[in-house]
Design brief:
By secondary structure, the protein is of the alpha+beta class. It has three helices and twelve strands; from the N terminus they run αααββββββββββββ. Belongs to the peptidase S24 family.
Amino acid sequence: MEELTERQREVLEIVSSYIRDHGYPPSLREIGGRLKVKGTLGVLKHLDALEKKGYLRRSEGSSRGITLVHQAEGASLPIVGVVRAGVLTHAMEDIEGHFSIDRSQLRSEGMFFLRVRGDSMIHALIAEGDLALVRPQPTAENRDIVVAMVGGEATLKRFYREKDRIRLQPENPNYDAIIVRSGEADVTIVGKVVGIYRQLE
């Protein structure tokens, strides 16, 4: 399913919580009231977008004709910023939206998405614009693909711990590895990349 804007996520949460509390879906005016908007045109646009993205189905001829798709199985995770799959860049932690995945894919608490910028991991099939699903953890094994902080900047690379250094290796021959020798700089593992999500259109 496609990612949601902040407003679409808010509408989806209103519908979900209303169904949970009342056992039936809200009317357009009730959704508008929760959003603090007058009229129903804006609400209809958000519901249309949610239907196109596969989060709900609507029935014609009923003001409450809303059915959630996979309500029990979905988990909405935040997209918390951008990470370069290229040169190091300052870390960004601005939530730009949410993306829902099947709850069965969650192996631990606190998982989140980062949007990939750059092409240094292209041979690992990680491309510009992909969403990288990150499982927070402070350590990594050799060959893990990780989000790492080096001197306060973030990058997405393959991790190697070697004799007297850490090597953050790109998967593109046009880029050099980031080598951090012991005592030169702090390397912090933010988490391991455990999934890649891509929109094809």
